Amino acid sequence: MPEPRIIAPATGKLGVLTPGLGAVASTFIAGVLKARAEGKAPLGSVSQMAHIRLGERHEGRNPLIRDFAPLAQLDDLVFGGWDPISANALEAATTCGVLDERDLASISSEMEGIVAMDAVFDQKWVSRLDGQRVKQLSSKWDQALALMEDIERFRVENECDRLVMVWCGSTEAYQQASAVHETVAAFEQGLKDNDDNISPSQIYVYAALQSGVPFANGAPNLSTDLPCMIELSKTLGVPIAGKDFKTGQTLMKTMIAPGLKARMLGLRGWYSTNILGNRDGEVLDAPENFKTKEESKLGVLHTILQPDVYPDLYGNVDHVVRINYYPPRGDNKEGWDAIDIFGWMGYPMQIKIDFLCRDSILAAPIVLDLALFMDLAHRAGESGVQEWLSFYLKAPQASGDADPEQDLFIQQTKMKNTLRQWMGEDPVTHSEAG
Fold first, then answer.
1. Side-chain-side CA neighbours of residue 205 (13 Å)
2. Which of 61, 64, 93, 142 could form a disulfide with 54 if both were Cys (CB 3.0 to 4.6 A apart)?
């Protein structure tokens, strides 16, 4: 067996900070509050509900992950965040309309007490939103300093022993990395020069890392995957992870595509369309923001199917992704997929999927798991990209030069094997059955 990792205990309070206090963050907070006040099961949370097999199957060791790894307890979590629109978590939850009033009634006072801090916001990056509760600072350097002050004030006022940050804000307009992102020194100079290529989400990552706070990116924004941020996370010994919560349609793709490949069934085309009516849908209605999301969604199939290795099966695939803003649907997104496959002797077949999902309901447990696992990684002495958390992300970052793994089931094995290794248990490579 491997030597167990020395992991600092999860004592005291863990502050969970979310840039963005909208549908996803308010749903996440409400679910945790209900879980610890009323014993509501945190459905969808792997860290809370999944078991992990240890040793050989005949040994019968199959504890819950939360009982196996030294994770922070739900009772120890404290919540905070920034938002350019909502004043507090209750207002956000009420406005977004994800949760029923009956689910908010018993926790309304706690939700109202989670007051949003003024956000670093620039409409250039999110053209469809009009930020009202924003920091009145024109200097990006001053904005970064203000965020660091917010972080420290939150830490002190809430008596937190540790903090983590999970981006739950909107998708920013598409961009590619530029010279200002190459090194920490270049980025800091860019902040002082108000470089146009520095987005608000990048300022949040910088402020978090400088404050010793692990950061997970839940949107497809260019932020944790920048050379300067990877450099800073390694230098300061603070873990990062990204990007883009794996919910809805992409979750289905990472389940189905591995099955097609396992059976050596060919793929000719995969057409995906979504209708979504929440704030995320409104933001993505702008072409420059949709481009960011499109890049995140399109990369999944190529990585899983390996067209260079299997050109006869996957070398000529038409992969199309569309997102349509449709206000009547609200947070209840509909993802429709038309999949054209072929099999023996080239005969065509079709698969149709109509997933009527709830975006924030699928994303909320991801926020919880990322917060708890990022905190664990920090206490375990980790820094840099946490590739073992790719399980939760649409466009995961790789920690080395190889492409990131996209197969959901391989990602699950890697995540659990990382936990096993840290706790001094042998890896399991062939079965997760208890």
1. 32
2. 61
